[in-house]
Queue: 2 jobs
Job 1
Amino acid sequence: MQFWRKAFPYLMALMAVAAVAWAVSFGTLPPADFAWQNGDEIKTVDPARATGAPEGRILDAVFEGLLRNAPAGPRQANGIQPMAPKPGVAAAMPEISDDGRLYTFQLRDDARWTNGDPVTADDFFWSWRRMLHPETASEYAYQLYYIVGAEQYNTAQVAEGDKVEVELPDRPDPLQAFPRGTIRRGILRRIVPAESASQDTDDADAAAEEDARRQAYYVVEVKPEVDGQVDWEATGETQVFSIEPASTTFRDEETQHDVQTCLHVLIDFEAAGGVRVLGPKQLQITLKNRTAYFNSLLAFYPLYPVNRQCVEQYGSPYWTKPDHIVSNGPYRIQFRRIRDRVRLIKNETYWDADNVHLETLDAMAVKSQTTALNMYLKGQLDWATDVPQTMIPELKKRDDFLVAPALITYFYRLNVDRPPLDNVLVRRALNMAMDKQALCDYVAKAGQQPARGLVPPGMAGYEGALAGEFNVTRARELLAEAGYPGGRGLPRIEILYNTSEGHQAIAEAIQQQWKNNLGIDVELRNMEWGVYLDTVSKTNFTVARAGWIGDYPDPNTFLDMFVTGGPQNNTNWSNAQYDRLIEQAASEPDAEQRMQLLREAETILMDELPIIPIYFYVSINMVHPEVQGFAPTLQDVHPLMNLRIDRPSL
Amino acid sequence: MFLLRRLGWMLITLWVVYTISFALMRAVPGGPFSREKQIPEAIRRNIEARYKLDRPLVVQYFDQLRPLVTGRWENGRLKAWPDFGASFRLEDYTVNEVIAQGFPVSATLAIFALVFALMLGLSAGVVSAVQRHSPLDVSFMAAATLGIAVPNFVLASLAIVLFVFVLGWFPAAGWGTLKQIALPAICLGAPIAAYIARLTRTGMLEVLNRDYIRTAYAKGLHERRVIIHHALRGAILPVVSYLGPAAAGVLTGSIVLEQIFSLPGMGNHFIEAANQRDYTLAMGMILVYTFLLYVMNALVDISYAMIDPRIKLQ
């Protein structure tokens, strides 16, 4: 003890020196050619599993789909660079059949994976089926629902008479969905519910339904396979499968069968014919209906292909490690540091590598707006994607501050089941008592445009419908007509928003406007993001803030939200004619006619007002002046492969 | 014996913390997969099945607890212990990988902050005590009072304005070079330095009046030797006992600073995990923080016994 006592101060000093030396030993990193604020740490680089803008920027650089978004034509007068899907892995734009349902693609010969293998039609088939597989649990799987058979496959719906694939539980790694176990393919002859299953049909509990699906017996006529090809015409052998068999044997009318345990009974996606591989470089897609914006979806990152060999060799999530990942885009991932950066490096094997100018890119996971602005101002970032709202009036004076209209709408959802919002007159009164111009000019302040409709301007060929204008007198009359003259007797209204200074400022301004113009007192309530999302999805509010970013440049991405029971509806609003118009528009071949149908739908929406549109967002970007090839776009996507930097040579 | 008992209590504490955190996390509305963009019901069920969130809570409780105790085994070899599982929101990583990447960052920051705080605090405290009531003493102690009162995120904002924008000595944020570590470490260490300075000054003043110091002077020893070898040894005890809380302060303080300076450390992961309802990552962070605080306190107790012969470990 005596020795330790003597040694203690020196020991401490030694530890401190060693620790400092260790800390210093971290090598310094050479800066990348171009660094940008990518926001939140990305969730994943698996295209089938990713969602969100930060993931999108990385995936657009690392992978490439059949098509890719690229600049189309000169910039418009308002500075917007029009973008359109252009051939990516595809050699040319698809041939589309007259009914708009059949897309035929020829793939380019020089499209390669980073491991040197060619990108084939089979890669797309395999990647999409993987994305749709229930165990992949892709959030964006519904982007493929336009394809024949995709929805049934994803949601494991099978019916008697369907061609099905049955996966047996003999996977090499039980925890990995790929590579899959033995697949038996055949025709589903009968589905027999297990005896134990409760026949109580009014028990519509989702869990009970799922149990019934898993315990049912599937009688399948398994067809013989020759050289990997199924002979659907041949007579097959009857086999019985069940996911959770209650019994080991199954008695048909005359014979007794052994019940085989299986993992999945899904429709046979290949036989469904939605995606057909015509040749190594030829792919054909069949849609359920004509879909005007399908090309835009093909250029959207969830539909990018992944490398089968890589996924099957390493499994999820290990195949996404920078050391393992095989990709096909203009850039490769060099390394990742969690909540620090993703370093991208030019992919020399990319077919268009000659037109990729920057060698290294850094996607910086900087979430704080203030920190990002500091880093941008000090030259640590070349592109800031999100700046503090309070700084906007100051920053607006700078040349490198790029503001442009964006396909994003800020609106309030109204719960039409809750009094007084169940009365359309009250909803109209609330809308007309809102001075949206003032909100844009004095609260939002970045150049947002007041919104009288849900669909932002800028969609080619579409003229939006308009809700009532700001008109205090008329608003008061409407409120009186509804039975609340001067706001007397009006049930309590509360505006819900997620905790954020910006949303609070808007809500306070609206609270003030409604008080001044209608004489009604509205309460404000803010909630932490997760709690807010939960409350909105349960429609447990009277008025709730919302924002919607267009997935593709078509009015449908905004309007199909409000069909009856739609997952984004969340207002309890339902209108049969609206639903019909949206459905008709989906299959309308004539573009002009289609826009007309959508406009009629928006007119209903703006008349009934289950939502009050407030303003159309602008995209805000700050980019250093020496960066060339950066232009504001409607969807705020900026392909990194187009960028160049003209720095005075070092 | 002392260590064994401490270990036993630590395990119990960790288990209690695990249980309470598990209950609290599941009780908060919203889950790791709530989005503004709602997903169709069928897809939501696929996702819940993949992450086993469709199982009863009791089953989930033990499913998450089991690998923490047994670790992850592959082909009969222990791969990771304890196994916190895969992160819900950082899908490409396991929680163990996130901790492995985040811990060195936070540890480096903490070490720099503590070393800085000790050097500054001890020297300022000694100077203040020796030159009592001098202008130097008054200004040091004024600065120390301010340093304790000002929260470190305010200090950080001021430091960024001064050192980054006015003087241009340091980069604004980020991780990777020594220059980038300096500013957050200083901001993190400053309040602790202030506290240490005050403790040292008080301790020194008390010791300097003792007889053995007078004896040392009487022997004709040099003043520097008396102060460093004789006086400081006795005065440092309160500082050492403060190191435990200081380490805790550095750990929790860095949570805020890592956000401001965009550092990829544990604190950053902790905050984001809680915001994003990343059940496994948040649990991993909570348990690691509990463990660290526990170990820090145990180390302080041990070092206490090393310095002061009157203290015995029981």
Job 2
Amino acid sequence: MDELGRVPASVAGDPAFWRAGAISTTLVMLVVLAFLTIDSLDAIRAGGARVPAYTVINQEIGYAHDARLGHAMPVIGGEQLLFGRKYAPAEAQALIAKGKRVIQSRACIDCHTFFGNGAYYGPDLTKAWLDPAWRETWMPMTRQATREGAMVEFLMQPDRYPNWSRVMPNLGIDREEAIALVAYLKWMSAVDTNGFPANFAMMQQTRPAPSLSLADAGERAHTTHCAACHQADGLGVPGLFPPIASGEPFTAPERLLKPLIERGFYKDGKIVQGTVRQHLEIVLRGIPGTAMPGFGDRLDEATIAAIVTYQRNAFGNRSGDTVTADDVRAAR
Amino acid sequence: MYASQRLGLKYFAAAIVFLGVMLVAGLAAAAAFVQPGVLLPFSITKIIHIDGLIVWLLMGFMGAVYWFLPGELGCETVGVKAGEVMFWILCAAVIVVFGVFVVVQYGAGDEFALWFINQGRKYVEAPRWAAIGVVAVLSVFAYNIVATALRARRMTGVLAVLMIDLVPLVALYFVAFPAIDNMSVDLYWWWWLVHMWVEATWEVLIGCIVALALMQLLNTPRRIVEIWLYIEVALVLGTGILGLGHHYFWIGTPTYWLGIGGLFSAFEPLPLLGMVVHAVYDAGTQHMKTTNRPSLYWMMAEAFGNFLGGGMWGFMMTLPQINLYSHGTQWTVSHGHFAFWGAYACGVLSVVYLAVQKARGGAEPAGSAWKWAFALLNIGMLGMVGALLMSGMAQAFYERAIGGSTLQAFIEAQSNPWFAQGMAVRLAFGFVFAAGYVCLVYDLLTMWRRKA
């Protein structure tokens, strides 16, 4: 260098100088990576500092905000058996190994994400075990008393229990495979992921503001609770979810049409407007054997009243009916 | 023309065909977001789209090296015959693998499925028998380069970098085989393959290919090209090796990766910025004068696309405080499309134009089809990238920030009008891109049919 600190052209213009720089930079980085890898692999082995042992499937797994860290952390609680049995370490290991092979053979990661990695067509599965939807949607839909029971039924026949217009295809998962998958998801939910995905299940459900008019509240509640299947425009999805708009044609398997005919909502290949009583009955208790869940124990009377009122007066339905919270209470 | 160069042209032809295959699969996958349940399951279209991406780019890289190698060393490539056999094996294997994906789709959760149907790990879905084939193809490719240099008793700086780069290119692919039970450990190693290929090994490989192309395209002196290549290697590996940490934020790995990954990946745009400076400087010293305008245009698209798509779009979401919300949303998809397009696709297309011109006697490419192809492909890509970014930001906000990341939050975000509009616009620009592809194929075929 000269007195001004400039690098003479002879060095900067010499490829050998830059070659030496490239080689030494790369080597330093590789050495650092090697040390970090040794440390990380120890932390993420099953039973390591950040990833639980596979026997965690015998325990209750919670998720709670940690004020010191500023994000939620898995909380491992007392015994909570999976499928009512306690898995020994070797059995748990075998179950997890099976679950991983099911995940790979069905290429779950090419629709879903694990720890946010994969495809973005289906929901992230990192904390799927903890998702309120099992309790709120699939336990009633599959008529199962436990979360794991509902998960197994769903995984074996996802096309029979859809909750959205994107229906998970039936991937030929048998009972044994489904059990292994459920165990895998339970174990994975206990991994410390630094708070990913953000705010998991920590947010209040959005509720219609009390000042909204009945029509606005109904439209908003319909969008939130009904539109995933019946669509925002009330036209449903052909073959899967019936329209709410009367006069619309709907073709579907007998299994889906029969309960609609019995309840007076289907005639001559088209949807028709049934009675208020039947409408409330369906919304409150669902239709057994189909994807329609009951909302009676999930929504308050005012919201259900708003939904039914909205649906009976929107999408070209002109019943003029107004359903009140008292009507809903009476129907319960 | 050397036999090696004829083999290079074959690889280019196959690369362009598989670009078409991935494009069709991509349109089908994009359509599934707008109208679910048409044709194949989403996962199958997605697999063919991303595996087709890897296949066509690898073929483009190998074609480029087989094309440039004899010129660089002044002799025929050793083992061209074996390279040719491997070419046909690779083509046949890809067709069989894609056929099985479409027809069989999935197996039971046992080893048979992993060996013969689908390994179900993103980017390395190909069953193990086919992964062995990829190792064989890459090994023959690596052997041919090293053996040719040994026979020629010559070595250039660019070739030395290329040859060292072949070691991780082959070695990292072995991550494609194991089925590790523990998802955290599985993804830890999986990222060694995916990140270290795409953000390190491949970047160096395309750096070498661009260096070789610039010497022909703009007569840039070898000394300048080599200095730039070394600077790029130092910056790519100096930032990219520990930049690996940005994939270790959320997979269960220790918290220190948030700092390390965030810091080093924040510097990852540097080498890409260097490439822009380099390309613009070289083109400027030649007053943009060249005998192959399509190739120069694609080279400029490569430099800017790599910097914007890889560098800026990556930087935008790489800090953990943002990544917590953006990771695994359509925001990622926006970055992925722009980065692969800018960093690799444009470079391969530049070399393809260069090679086809030389193979046809060196006359300057004529007509306007190449301009249409260039414009429509780039507008199509930018349109898709912008639309995906819109959807991705809406998703990050509605699903993660205020929705609470549950299934219900996911569904609500996907049904949000901003999200849904983005997906529709993406599909529309997908068709613009497809129109550009048709122009590209037409133009290359026209050039090819011209008498030498």
